[in-house]
Amino acid sequence: MTTPTTLTARDARRCHHSAVNPFHSAHYFSPDYAEQFAALGFEDHNAAYLVGRAAAMGAVGAGAVAAAFYNFSHGMISRHLPAAWTVASPEEVLATRLRVADASLRRLLGDEVLASAELAEAAGLALRAAEGCTRHARTLYAAHADLPVPEEPHLAYWHAATLLREHRGDGHLAALLAAGLDPVEALVSHSATGKGMSTRWLLSTRGWSQDDLDAAAARLRGRGLLGPEGELTEAGVRLRAELEDRTDELDLAPYAHLGAEGVARLTELGQGFVLRLVTAGAFPAGLLGKG
To answer: What global pTM score does this model have?
Structure first.
């Protein structure tokens, strides 16, 4: 393999989407997540997700989470927060989430992979990349960056993947604001690309109704971004591409810090682990797409 000498924004995007983000996000779909959070007192899957992702910010209310998560309904969030913190403290939630990550990775990858030199190398590379992240205007990244790095390599890699995932996500929200897409418009236009969550998953996890989605689609059609059958127009395709390009720019720093060779190696290693996760059934069918 030729060793790359120049890093591009597309290289960073590829590393994030194919090697970093899936490694972090797999635990949300794990039966371990549902089981352990139910044991903690959160049987509702939306409540479990909300506290698991928000706990790094402390015992925050619905407003702070709606701002940081962007595309979740404030009404849905307020049904769970801040009341959820009387069920379990943020510290208890964070400890549970780490146990979930450990259990799910052990089950999906196996102890041999977790003890491998390759996974330890990936953890080191991802942590080095995270050194290039910045806290300002990065709410979820900054909150998670204050958490200790786990000692075990597979959890250290998962932690680093979390940092990189939230860093990119925080930047993406700034790009959405600049593009003038509200939370539901952002979801609908992303789903129309075929790469976002399916309508079924949006309705079950984000707290919006079909009427909310239909109204957002009408607004997008009014702006010339969506066609009559829900497909993106040329202007819509261009806007979504510009959004990703701007997100790449805002997220380049950690990958530039790691360097072209390091990014290529992290991508290679991470893709191998993600392929194993996918093969082991880590992600549900029907998660992504237009349906």
So the answer is: 0.94
